[in-house]
Amino acid sequence: MKRLIWLLSLCPVFLSGCFIPLAYPTWSQTPLVPLDAPNEEVHAFRVHVKEDWSGPEFWKEYEYTLAPVPTLAGHSIPQTTVSADYGCLWLCVALNFVVHTHHTLELRLYRPGYETVEIKSWDLTKEIAWKKADDLAEHEKAIDDLLSGPRRDWGSFPHLMRAKLEAPGTSSKSNKAVEFNLQPGSESRAHKKALLFGAEEYERLAASFAATNDELRDTQARLLAKAAWLRKRAAE
């Protein structure tokens, strides 16, 4: 009986668990890559990403900003950043919880008429294989890929994946929702410039064809709606 009372008295200690804060520096880097295309045709954008690596109980959307960066002598210029990752571990007897914020960067290369190329941090890509955008849907997807959020593996979060697939703004080519969790234009002048560039590209594409049937009219309306959203976001 005394042993049982002693064990029960320790329950609050076990239930409270162990709380461990985390913080450490991270270094992100993209390489020097030959563009294999005329300099004036390629638009390079640095993407700074604030990723949420938390468990599903504390999960949040990724946050990211874009900034146009120059190219030089037919090459993408290496991009680098040093950031601080942070979070905590809450270790309990039956359940463990993770809250973790990670910072990284990517380089995206947009060339009208081709699929957008994404180069992740520490990607050792030595050359770029440009793929032609064969139809209107692929042209639209190239702009979507320039502006949309970083790719996330939804396998561990099926309920979140379903919410994304059912969201408005679905791309007709990929049948996946375009995630525009872009920060407002007030974040920086460079980010605002990137938002306006995206709006101009959607508008250019919408004006490049005649809406001769219902499907094309729907496509044109969707392109203009995305452009309008980006202009509104840039003004915020």
Overall mean pLDDT stands at: 77
* Rg: 22 Å
Secondary-structure element string = HHEEEEEEEEEHHHH
Q: Which residues sit in consecutive blocks of at least 5 with pLDDT less than 50?
A: 1-15, 153-177
Q: What is the tally of beta strands?
A: 9
> What form results from the Cα inertia axes?
globular
The residue fraction in helices comes out at 25-40%
Task: Describe it.
The protein is an alpha+beta fold. It has one domain (16-235). The chain contains 6 helices and 9 strands. The chain has helices at residues 2-9, 11-16, 136-147, 158-165, 189-206, 214-235, and strands at 18-29, 33-34, 43-52, 63-69, 71-72, 75-76, 80-91, 96-110, 117-120. Strands 1, 3, 4, 7, 8 and 9 form a 6-stranded antiparallel beta sheet that branches. A 3-stranded antiparallel beta sheet has the order 2-6-5, with no helix packed on it. The N and C termini lie far apart (66 Å). 22% of the residues are buried.
How is the secondary structure organized here?
Blueprint lengths: L1 H8 L1 H6 L1 E12 L3 E2 L8 E10 L10 E7 L1 E2 L2 E2 L3 E12 L4 E15 L6 E4 L15 H12 L10 H8 L23 H18 L7 H22 L1
Antiparallel strand pairs: 1-7, 2-6, 3-4, 3-8, 5-6, 7-8, 8-9
Question: Can you give keywords for this protein?
Answer:
236 residues; 3-stranded antiparallel beta sheet; disordered N terminus
